[in-house]
Write a structure and sequence with these properties.
By secondary structure, this protein is of the alpha/beta class. 37% of the residues lie in helices and 14% in strands. The chain contains ten helices and eight strands.
């Protein structure tokens, strides 16, 4: 029987199957934190990677954004072979590692060709890329869209079906949107609807993601609560995301968002990567953690040695 993720040691977690990882997350009763980071930028601490920094602050899941499986880059890590980057992160942190893959339209073209979010081949939600990620040791794929990528819910649904068949027995599949991703018809309450939640789960998603209340105009705690209930009724987990750079807000704002997500009943709390660029503000990771799980569990996650 899987222990709750709050209590797992690195050694225990490394031995868990996909189903045991899901059970460990669910058993934590809304006290799991996922922190996103961008490995292609200079780390906040210079020669220490942002993933290591986030793990030291208590993050349970390390979500890599702009991570190209054909050219994996996480600045600040010791030099390893490209195929071993994810395994090195797990060796140094003892945490679950997830990556974003983006189900873009074949005719996608960014408005700005120099946009940092511009998609490269190894970031697209294809079966080949998902298999490469699994072979690299990735625990979870999140099918979502960065700003101005034109990712639609229909595209996400198609990718869930493809990836579930290819790697669904090896990795957790999460899906949803943090913001409109440049699709105005899927803004506000249309970013993720109850129908989307049902469709994603029926297609094979283990976790459904939607914006945290207070991060996108019009999305209230009650509305997000209704999506959480819809997902839980179908035995899937949920994740709320701060994907609107509010991971760089004042601590008071982060605490308020955290409490709304907690009241909504979410299983995983996501903090984005763009306080400036690269990761959330450290003080906000700590504030969020203390808000949803108190000082004891916050400091325990920070202090637990990866050698255990």
């Amino acid at each position: 029987m899987a222990k709750r993720l709050l209590d797992c040691t690195a050694r225990e977690l490394a031995a868990y199957s996909k189903d045991e990882k899901i059970a460990a997350i669910g058993g934590s009763e809304g006290r799991v934190i996922a922190c996103e980071s961008i490995g292609t930028v200079t780390p906040m601490l210079g020669n220490i990677s942002n993933v290591e920094f986030l793990a030291s602050l208590g993050a349970d899941i390390l979500l890599l954004n702009i991570f190209d499986v054909n050219n994996p880059v996480v600045q600040g890590l010791p030099e390893v072979a490209p195929c071993d980057v994810v395994r090195e992160i797990k060796r140094l942190t003892g945490r679950l590692v997830a990556i974003n893959l983006e189900p873009i339209s074949p005719d996608y073209k960014p408005e700005d060709e120099k946009n940092m979010w511009k998609i490269t081949g190894g970031r697209v939600a294809t079966v080949d890329n998902a298999v490469k990620a699994a072979d690299m040791g990735v625990d979870m794929i999140l099918l979502t869209g960065n700003p101005d990528t034109g990712v639609t819910n229909a595209g996400i649904l198609h990718s869930i079906r493809e990836l579930k068949e290819a790697v669904g027995n090896r990795m957790i599949i999460a899906a949803g949107k943090m913001h409109a991703s440049g699709i105005l018809s899927e803004a506000g309450e249309n970013i993720v609807t109850k129908d989307d939640v049902t469709s994603f789960i029926d297609a094979g998603a283990d976790i459904v993601l939607f914006p945290a209340p207070g991060t996108v105009g019009g999305l209230t705690m009650d509305y997000i609560r209704s999506l959480v209930v819809a997902a839980h009724e179908k035995n899937a987990l949920t994740m709320t995301a701060i994907g609107t750079s509010q991971e760089g807000s004042e601590v008071e704002t982060i605490r308020e968002i955290a409490l709304m997500c907690k009241m909504a009943g979410v299983d995983i709390h996501h903090l984005g990567d763009s306080a400036f660029t690269g990761m959330a503000m450290p003080e906000n990771v700590l504030a969020y953690s203390k808000t949803i799980r108190g000082a004891r569990h916050t400091y325990r996650r920070m202090a637990l040695s990866i050698m255990r």
